[in-house]
Design brief:
Strand order of the largest sheet: 1-2
Strand content: 5-15%
Largest sheet: 2 strands, antiparallel
Number of helices: 5
Helix content: 55-70%
Structural class: mainly alpha
Number of strands: 2
Low-confidence stretches: none
Length: about 160
């Protein structure tokens, strides 16, 4: 049977490598964006971590923290380590039944299947990593390579690390 486990393992692997790449950037890289009205690299990177907290909240009821906006490589490294913990928690969720989860959002009480929340966690991080990569490229910063973080790269890494 095919499950979300592999996708969530990839999420953790890609996030870890992505934030390690962000940690190597100069502080000015975190202020750039891909369009005048778009979020900055720092805000997007913080939002990925905040999103992981949100999915944890929806799945477990744990509250989110007051994340400090990422403005430099040291903060990216620190939040990247925290994100790894959140990704591990999301991965643990695949062992549970695909129950309907009830949680509070901006409109009040909401419901979603566990699988919907886990799938959205994968999509959410992927979308924002791409936005960050675009912003960095648009301003000439050597950001993390998305090709080096795709599922093909993950599969090759799995084969060589087993």
């Amino acid at each position: 049977m095919i499950t979300l486990e592999r996708g969530l393992r990839h999420l953790g692997w890609a996030d870890t490598r992505f934030y390690a790449g962000l940690a190597e950037l100069p502080a000015e890289a975190f202020a750039v964006s891909y369009a005048p009205d778009a979020w900055s690299v720092g805000r997007l990177a913080t939002h990925i971590v905040g999103g992981a907290e949100w999915y944890r909240h929806c799945l477990t009821g744990a509250m989110w923290t007051d994340l400090q906006p990422i403005a430099d490589g040291a903060q990216a490294a620190k939040q990247g380590a925290y994100l790894a913990e959140l990704d591990a928690l999301l991965l643990e969720q695949v062992a549970l039944p695909d129950d309907v989860m009830t949680f509070q959002d901006e409109q009040g009480e909401a419901r979603a299947l566990r699988s919907t929340l886990l799938t959205q966690a994968i999509v959410h991080a992927t979308e924002h990593r791409a936005q960050i990569a675009c912003a960095l490229a648009a301003h000439g910063f050597p950001g993390p390579s998305l090709d080096a973080l795709d599922l093909w790269a993950f599969e090759a890494w799995e084969r060589t690390s087993s």
